[in-house]
């Protein structure tokens, strides 16, 4: 206990130190960030300073000229406020937008304008939360430290101050089980899943799946956990660490003799058990767990626990008592300044008891799906606790250009006015590296005095994205996207799904179990295609700003992919119509066009690294190669049993088929379209529209675990603009109307 409190004190020390004492730490951290994102010397071109007197409580930044009048200066009340100010300056003054497709660039040739007058922004959100347990599976499974530090810089530029951090959780549990619970090495590691599935294990959904590795993997994870948490703290963040929810292995009673309770199944997986909260052993095991957690990740103010996530139950029914025990264990183990962070996601009636079982303002409720299906009214703003307005821009990593920008901008301000309990804003995506515009707006909202005009904001975004205010085609393109794909107002969980990725049928209503293929903006399809065409026309102006070329290439690839994916939806309907009408010649023609479309989409996506399967599989193997004494078998374990399985079958047949998890994380990626989805459709069309006698699981599992192993490269091939132009010319019709207007359609 004493050691834990010392670690907590050290972790929180920067928050208590006077501003002058912090200056060397601040200068070093911010200078490092600037030089990483813009190249060596960038920190000498933007003056930064910390001034705690700007605000005694809220984070504040001021953008101005330095004393010489020749350089821009960002002053902040804290390190994270300075970082947020740098991000604001880059986007709104220098017209530089750094996001997942380009997290760093050479800024040596970019002009940094000096502000004519100071611009001040005070943050209205104490909590700026980021990430979801699922993100650590669907996106971050394969990351090395190089990629992680880029993401942490991305967070800092957006002012995020409480990111979820679960890397190293397997190390914590291995140490806890072996050192405190009497487990042997083999027994402990049988409980721990593979890297791709750690997130769901951390939410008490499963145990052991995809696991069985070597000791050196744990050493690699322990090292990475420290690198992540150290950097986050240096930049002024308090990571949200995985606390003790009472979760234990399902064989815990037989090993230790301590009473446990079953929590049921999750999508066919055996859930871990939970300790009896009334047991005298609960507090002691929690204390031991928090000690092991501190050894790996240090301490924090925030701890995440979700004991009954997605249907978890206990036979005793003592839920309120369980919540109370979980809180008291945290409070006693890490101190009275700690706060429990809990996800509100599809709560059952018994889960709301946490609101009263935990002392007032010691629980922070993440209203995870505020942008799609907010629950503030249902739970009266989560009184008497604090709440965070969150968005889930993506589910499962399923590919699609999608957002709720107007709704999100309106709802955040309106709910904040209605409920004083809303103290924060956050993004809780199941996966990232898609539709970065949504995140750029979300994290600017709390720094705004009033609700923004989203049409003006998107115009400014186009300027930041492509380096100039003079690119009219780009501005028109983004206005069109704002009114179509970025203007969803339903409870749809992520983008509508791509029929080319579905198990073949002439009647495809969904790809995954919980998705749907209906295009929510199909009444405005002309406008979306027009936006795609306008983005093509933006290329000449973008060429004048080389550092923006990566943004343009990514956006054009993604939006053209969406246009072609939508085309496939209508082409499949036309195929069904031809079949129903008995027109075999027309059916054959449309069939061949459909198959050709899949291959053309594969070629388009191959022009950008982010849309290549090789980007996922190569980094998986690189992560495994960081393990001392790695073997080829370990590289295959990382790619096949984890990275490939996650995005195809997810589990074995009972979980994939019976549990509904197959294709939940489907991806429209180069390599997958050609080698995974295309063969399914080709088989279907060549076998009288029938699936294999044994079903599709055998095909899917076989590809995920194929031998001899097919290797995929992350290196882009071809020019995005040229391939996009060819595809649009091939599949989109353009009709010029009297008066000069243009009508777009698809070649069916």
Any descriptors?
globular; 45% helix; alpha/beta; 748 residues; four-stranded mixed beta sheet
Query: In this structure, how is the largest beta sheet organized?
Result: 8 strands, parallel
Low-confidence stretches: 1-21
Distance between the termini: 70 Å
In total, the number of strands is 19
Radius of gyration: 26 Å
Tell me the quaternary state. Answer: single chain
**Total of DSSP H or I helical runs spanning 4+ residues:** 27
List the helices and strands and how they pair.
Blueprint: H1 2-16, H2 19-38, E1 47-50, E2 60-65, E3 72-76, H3 79-92, E4 119-122, E5 127-130, H4 135-138, H5 145-157, E6 162-163, H6 169-180, H7 185-191, H8 198-202, H9 215-234, E7 240-242, E8 247-248, H10 252-256, E9 260-261, E10 265-266, E11 269-270, E12 273-275, H11 280-297, E13 302-304, H12 319-334, E14 339-344, H13 354-357, E15 363-367, E16 386-391, H14 405-418, E17 422-427, H15 436-442, H16 454-466, H17 472-482, H18 525-537, H19 539-542, H20 549-580, H21 584-605, H22 613-625, H23 632-646, H24 653-658, H25 672-686, H26 697-704, H27 720-731, E18 732-736, E19 742-746
Parallel strand pairs: 1-3, 5-6, 5-17, 7-13, 13-14, 14-15, 15-16, 16-17
Antiparallel strand pairs: 2-3, 2-4, 8-12, 9-12, 10-11, 18-19
Helix pairs in contact: 5-9, 6-11, 11-12, 16-17, 17-18, 18-20, 20-21, 20-27, 21-25, 21-27, 22-23
């Amino acid at each position: 206990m004493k050691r834990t409190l010392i670690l907590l004190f050290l972790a929180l020390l920067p928050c208590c130190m006077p501003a002058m004492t912090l200056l060397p730490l601040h200068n070093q951290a911010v200078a490092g960030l600037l030089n990483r994102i813009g190249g060596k010397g960038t920190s000498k071109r933007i003056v930064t300073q910390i001034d705690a007197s700007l605000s005694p409580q809220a984070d504040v930044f001021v953008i101005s000229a330095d004393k010489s009048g020749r350089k821009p200066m960002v002053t902040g009340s804290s390190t994270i406020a300075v970082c947020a100010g740098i991000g604001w300056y880059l986007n709104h003054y220098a017209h530089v937008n750094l996001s997942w497709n380009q997290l760093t660039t050479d800024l040596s040739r970019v002009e940094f304008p000096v502000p004519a007058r100071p611009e001040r922004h005070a943050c209205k959100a104490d909590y700026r939360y980021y990430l979801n347990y699922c993100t650590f599976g669907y996106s971050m499974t394969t990351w090395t430290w190089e990629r992680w530090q880029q993401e942490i810089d991305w967070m800092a530029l957006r002012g995020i101050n409480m990111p979820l951090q679960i890397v190293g959780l397997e190390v914590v549990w291995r140490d806890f089980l072996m050192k405190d619970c009497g487990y042997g090495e083999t027994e402990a590691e049988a409980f721990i899943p593979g890297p791709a599935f750690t997130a769901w294990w951390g939410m008490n959904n499963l145990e052991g799946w995809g696991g069985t590795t070597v000791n050196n993997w744990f050493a690699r994870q322990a090292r990475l956990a420290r690198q992540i948490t150290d950097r986050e703290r240096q930049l002024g963040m308090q990571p949200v660490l995985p606390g003790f929810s009472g979760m234990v292995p399902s064989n815990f009673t037989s090993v230790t003799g301590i009473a446990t309770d079953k929590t049921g199944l999750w999508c066919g997986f055996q859930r871990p058990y939970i300790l009896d909260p009334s047991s005298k052993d609960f507090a002691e095991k929690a204390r031991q767990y928090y000690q092991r957690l501190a050894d790996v990740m240090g301490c924090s103010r925030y701890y995440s626990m979700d004991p009954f996530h997605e249907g978890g139950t206990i036979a005793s029914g003592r839920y309120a008592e369980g919540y109370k025990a979980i809180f008291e264990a945290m409070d006693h183990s890490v101190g009275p300044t700690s706060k429990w962070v809990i996800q509100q996601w599809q709560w059952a009636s018994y889960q709301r008891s946490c609101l009263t079982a935990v002392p007032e303002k010691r629980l922070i409720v993440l209203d995870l799906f505020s942008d799609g299906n907010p629950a503030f009214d249902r739970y009266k703003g989560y009184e008497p606790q604090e709440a965070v307005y969150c968005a889930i821009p993506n589910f499962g990593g399923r590919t699609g250009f999608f957002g709720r920008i107007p709704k999100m901008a309106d709802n955040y301000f309106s709910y904040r006015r209605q409920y004083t309990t809303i103290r924060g804003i956050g993004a809780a995506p199941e996966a990232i590296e898609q539709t970065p515009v949504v995140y750029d707006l979300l994290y600017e909202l709390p720094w705004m005095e009033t609700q923004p005009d989203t049409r003006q904001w998107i115009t400014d975004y186009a300027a930041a994205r492509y380096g100039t205010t003079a690119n009219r085609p780009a501005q028109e393109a983004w206005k069109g996207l704002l009114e179509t794909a970025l203007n969803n107002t339903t409870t749809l969980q992520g983008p509508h799904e791509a029929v080319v990725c579905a198990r073949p049928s002439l009647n495809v209503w969904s790809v995954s179990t919980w998705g749907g293929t209906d295009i929510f903006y199909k009444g405005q399809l002309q406008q979306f295609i027009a936006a795609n065409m306008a983005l093509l026309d933006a290329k000449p102006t973008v060429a004048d700003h080389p550092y923006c070329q990566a943004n343009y290439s990514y956006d054009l690839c993604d939006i053209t992919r969406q246009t072609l994916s939508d085309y496939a939806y209508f082409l499949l309907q036309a195929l069904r119509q031809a079949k129903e009408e008995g027109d075999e010649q027309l059916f054959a023609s449309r069939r061949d066009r459909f198959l050709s479309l899949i291959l053309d989409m594969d070629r388009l996506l191959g022009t950008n690294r982010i849309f290549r399967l090789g980007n996922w599989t190569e980094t998986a193997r690189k992560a495994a190669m960081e393990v001392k004494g790695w073997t080829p078998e370990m590289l295959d374990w990382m790619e096949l049993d984890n990275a490939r399985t996650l995005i195809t079958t997810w589990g074995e047949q009972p979980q994939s088929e019976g549990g509904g998890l197959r294709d939940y994380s489907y991806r429209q990626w180069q390599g997958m379209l050609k080698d995974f989805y295309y063969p399914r459709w080709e088989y279907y069309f060549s076998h009288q529209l029938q699936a294999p006698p044994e079903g599709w699981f055998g095909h899917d599992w076989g590809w995920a675990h194929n031998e001899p192993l097919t290797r995929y490269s992350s290196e882009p091939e071809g020019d995005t603009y040229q391939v996009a132009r060819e595809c649009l010319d091939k599949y989109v019709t353009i009709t010029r109307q009297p008066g000069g207007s243009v009508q777009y359609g698809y070649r069916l």
